[in-house]
Amino acid sequence: MARRRYVFITLFAAALLLMTPSGAIANESNGIGGKVSNLDAVGRSGVSIDLFEADQNGNRLNYLRSTRSDGSGAYSFDIPNGGCYSVVMIAPDGDRFASGKYRQVGTCFSRGSGTRIDGQLQSRANDKGTYRTTVVNAAGSGVKGVQVDLFRMGADNSKSGFLYSIYTQADGTYQSQLNVGCYIATGVAPAGSTFSGNKRYQNDSFCLESGRTTTGSFTLSSGANNGGGTCFRQVFRDDFNGSSLGSQWTPYNSVGNAGYGLRRPSAISVRDGKLIMTAKNNSDGVLVSGGMSLKQSQTYGRYRFRVRTDADYNKATSGVILTWPASGNQPRDGENNMYETGWGDPSRKPFFSYIHEPFQDTNRPTQQAWLPHYADGTQWQIMTMEWTPDQIRIVREGPGDQNWKEYVVKERSDDNVIPDVDHFVAIQLDNWKHSSSNTVRMEVDWIEVSEYCG
Q1: Cα separation of 424 and 327, whole Å?
Q2: In this structure, what is the dihedral angle of CA atoms 46, 52, 55, 61, given to the nearest 10 degrees?
Q3: Each residue of 30-54: pLDDT tens digit?
Q4: Residue 279 carries which DSSP code?
């Protein structure tokens, strides 16, 4: 990294040697760390912080390395041998420290000790800027329905916390208001398209200033979807950041899947930013697990979530996230199992998606598309289903034989393959036995639902 140049007005050398009190940082006994926050004491992510060697008066000597504050505003430099150093915090565009664009602090400490150095920006927590993104094809025409994921920017310009997805409108643009700070936008090329370099994903790093608009752009260089696409508009998202289930959900209180065991609300908890469903025996030796459904329903749409399920060597449970017909009439109105671990392989490798075709004749066997994912269902996986009148597209992102896998189920002229009635999304840890000696957890980090807009 090229060394930055700074201009400082130094009143006297001792002013640079500002020893800040030690605090609860990860390496307070082994280096330098702290937090960058705003006037409301809310941590600020993505702030650049440079580390220099310094003399005992705090004067900078050699540039060493840089980092950025993470999603909570924290940063750290591991320095096990101690010494004299200068830390320079650089305010993002549109913001400042009390001292101006830069906050420079010099410190000396011995081996095995450390120093905490915090920084306070002059912005407020509710200060916002606008990010406007445009996706075009090779001819310069806007492309609608392209997914752009937004992340906070953390240390070393890396992603530090997923925020949400946006989808470009008919003219290929979309804008979103965010708190001032630094972010990374990741464009996701539609099926059959790529970005420059034949890449599926493209990143755009940016910082927002209070009251100002920052623009970004993505260009699709190939693919049949150039100049067109599918439009989805987000209508619901749950990050499970509270301590209880939100009112938009209805927990099950019934017998278990296929009559096995029980489903009870007590099997569902929300903590540490996750939804957790737990399956375990009660005091009577009956397997109790959980399930819940979203109250709102829709025809077609986009569903996206991050999920994992424990291994189960008793083969007693299956983690499932699906859409179910609001009419309750299945198989007539179809069923879309976006994520299903099944119970047959206790390691959850592979797991599956099943698209159950709607049909009127209940005398014939259920017809379904069987879509295997050769990946580890015990690890975090991001699953996406795009359900439109002419097809259902399933995408898996996460560790596996391939880090990205896509399946497309097409409507047929000779058969009704794609459901065309309202469905709601459901999350279930299904029992397949009456009792089990294992405790199994299914965890959901977040889930979002988008309506189909053409």
Answers
A1: 10
A2: -140
A3: 799 999 998 888 888 888 899 999 9
A4: E
Q: Chain centroid to CA 115: how far?
A: 33
Task: Give the whole-angstrom CA distance, residue 293 versus residue 203.
Answer: 34
**Who's near 5: CB < 8 A, 6+ residues apart?**
none
Beta bridge partners of 220: 195
Token pair belonging to 190 = 């539609």
Residue 160 has a CB neighbour count (10 Å cut-off) of 21
Question: Which domains, from first to last, does the chain contain?
Answer: 13-120 (2.60.40.10), 128-229 (2.60.40.10), 234-452 (2.60.120.200)
Nearest Cα residue to 383 out of 429, 337, 430: 337
Cis peptide before 350 (omega within 30 of 0): yes
What single-letter DSSP state applies at residue 285?
A: S
The amino acid occupying position 255 is: V
Query: CA angle at residue 399 from 396 to 400, to 5 degrees?
Result: 80
- Give the tokens for residue 142: 């806007």
Amino acid code (one letter) for 179: N
Say if residue 18's pLDDT is above 50: no
How much is the pTM?
A: 0.60
Angle (CA) 252 253 257, round 5°: 70
Query: Cβ distance 69 to 44 under 8 Å?
Result: yes
DSSP state of 97: B
- CB environment 24-54: b (16+ within 10 A), e (fewer): ebeebebbbbbbbbbeeebbbbbbbbbbbeb
The whole-angstrom separation of Cα 315 and Cα 298 is 34
The answer to whether 178 and 166 have CB atoms below 8 angstroms apart is no
Lookup result for tokens 């880090």: 403
Q: What single-letter amino acid sits at 215?
A: T
Give the 3-state DSSP-derived string for 327-343, with helices as H, strands as E and coil as C: CCCCCCCCEEEEEECCC
**Cα–Cα–Cα angle for 41, 46, 47, nearest 5°?**
70
Q: Please list, in sequence order, all residues whose beta carbon lies within 8 angstroms of the beta carbon of residue 24, skipping any fewer than 6 positions away.
A: none
- Which burial class, exposed, middle or buried, applies to 216 when counting CB atoms under 10 A from its CB (0-12, 13-18, 19+)? middle
Q: What is the pLDDT of residues 336-375, one digit of tens each?
A: 999 999 999 999 999 999 998 887 555 655 677 888 999 9
Round to whole Å and give the CA distance between 348 and 379: 9
